[in-house]
Task: structure prediction
Amino acid sequence: MRKIGVDLGGSDLGYSDQIHNDNNSSEYDRVKKHREKLEVVARRALDHTAHLSLDDILTQLQDYIHQRAADIRKLFTKYDEEGAGRIKRSQFRRFLLKAGFIMDDAQFKELCTRMKVGKSLSYQDFLDTSSGRVPVSIPTTLKATWSPNGRPS
Result:
C-alpha cells in the first residue's frame, strides 16, 4: 500500500482482513446454495423423465424439433465439432441434455436403439428418425440445403 501512497495503520489491516474473509465466506455460501438448487432441479428433471415411456420422450423430442424447426440446423452443427455432418453418440446425449431431455443410461440406450443411432448420427438421419413417429413439418428447404460445411448443397 505504501507504493501507492496509502498509509494504513494496524487497525485498518484488521478491518480489511475481516471484510475479505466475510466476502469469501458469503461467496462460498452463495455458490454452495446455488449448487444445491441445481441438484434439486436435476433430480426433479430426472424423476420426471424416468416416469416417461420412450414413446412419450420421442413425442416430446418431436415437439421440440417442431418448435425449433428454423434453428435446428444451428443446434445440430453446434454439436458437430468436426464439421462432418454427424454428431457422436456422446454429443447427441449432450444435445438432448441441453434440450431438457434428462434420461438415465437405459433410457438413452433405448432411445438410440429406436432412432438407430450407432456411434454417430447424421443430420438427415436425425431429422428423419426424430420426425418419423408423429408428422413434423420441418421445412423441405432445411433438409435440402444443409451440408457439413454449412453451405447450400
Observations:
- The radius of gyration is 24 Å.
- Confidence is low (pLDDT under 50) at residues 133-147.
- DSSP finds seven helices and two strands in the chain.
